[in-house]
Design goal:
Blueprint: H1 20-33, H2 35-52, H3 59-78, H4 86-110, H5 115-120, H6 127-153, H7 166-190, H8 194-208, H9 215-219, H10 222-226, H11 228-235, H12 238-250, H13 263-287, H14 291-294
Helix pairs in contact: 1-13, 2-6, 3-4, 3-6, 4-6, 4-7, 4-8, 4-12, 6-7, 7-12, 7-13
């Protein structure tokens, strides 16, 4: 299947480029009209990643478990900061973070990796990062396997109906990831250091987010109580909101009681993320006509 098979090619004169609202509408229309192409690219991406290693997509089961083991040893044994059922506590953050970082990484390289195709064919380039990000959704679903394994084998007392809310939180994360992925994919065409910068920035982002610890632990810190502005900034960190939401429905309270996410915080993040997606689409479409020249 060729990239241009899904829809007829349309050539647009750069002199009549639409304004920002027109670019947003155009980007959304192109992505929706090329659903078949996006599905094909997602399937191709999953097949390629599965063929590149011996274990293939099984790494989406093993990798978060290995990361969980490392952090459990680091925090529970070396730093001696006990947390009830800490493996599940940390896994509730590792799994969505792995989805986020892999999706962002794939979207960053999605355009530059198809340079030869872009130079030869006319098609909406926005489908490339969109496909990369949606491929991550499938991988996130693979990650549900070790999560359910942990719950069924080790933490049956924490099984609850709140687990059914994971897809709701995942939708918020998907929208936020889409916004960031589109912008970085476009910028990486012109500045190839974006991938390296993003890799280090994401590592720092994780440690500044309540992945290894909880917001409650930060609130008990004497140092942060002296600087409430810093604590406020940490609370509005998108992944502080997402980690706490995932942890609420997967882990619950330290005593093991089910807990609902903070719907107000999740709703606010969703609305902001939708706005960021519109800005990202406009940015991508504004830069798109120059891709072929640079690549």
């Amino acid at each position: 299947m060729s990239a241009s098979a899904a829809q007829p090619v349309t050539v647009q004169n750069s002199a009549t480029r639409p304004g920002i609202p027109g670019l947003v509408v155009e980007g959304i229309r192109e992505a929706l009209s090329r659903r078949q192409l996006i599905r094909y690219l997602v399937q191709a991406d999953l097949r390629k990643k599965g063929a590149d290693t011996v274990l293939g997509n099984v790494w989406w089961v093993l990798d978060p478990l290995l990361q969980m083991a490392v952090y459990v040893i680091l925090v529970s044994v070396i730093f001696a900061r006990p947390q009830p059922d800490y493996p599940l506590f940390i896994f509730a953050a590792i799994l969505p973070w792995k989805w986020f970082t892999s999706s962002v990484g794939d979207s960053i390289t999605s355009v530059v990796s198809q340079g030869s195709l872009i130079r030869q064919l006319q098609f909406p380039k926005i489908v490339l990062p969109v496909a990369g990000i949606f491929a991550g959704v499938v991988n996130f679903a693979f990650g549900m396997i070790p999560l359910m394994g942990l719950l069924l084998l080790l933490y049956r007392d924490r099984l609850s109906l709140t687990l059914l809310l994971i897809p709701v939180i995942a939708v918020v994360q998907l929208v936020f990831t889409l916004a960031l992925g589109l912008v970085l994919a476009a910028f990486n065409v012109f500045v190839r250091d974006v991938g390296n910068i993003a890799r280090h920035a994401l590592r720092l982002w994780f440690y500044l987010s309540p992945g290894l610890y909880s917001i409650a632990l930060l609130e008990e810190s004497d140092l942060l109580q002296q600087y409430p502005v810093i604590l406020t900034l940490l609370r509005i960190n998108p992944f502080a909101i997402l980690f706490e939401a995932y942890r609420a429905v997967i882990y619950g309270t330290p005593e093991g009681s089910p807990l609902l996410p903070d719907w107000a915080a999740l709703g606010a993040l969703f609305v902001v993320s939708l706005g960021l997606v519109l800005v990202a689409i406009a940015t991508f479409k504004r830069l798109e006509p120059s891709f072929a020249k640079v690549l």
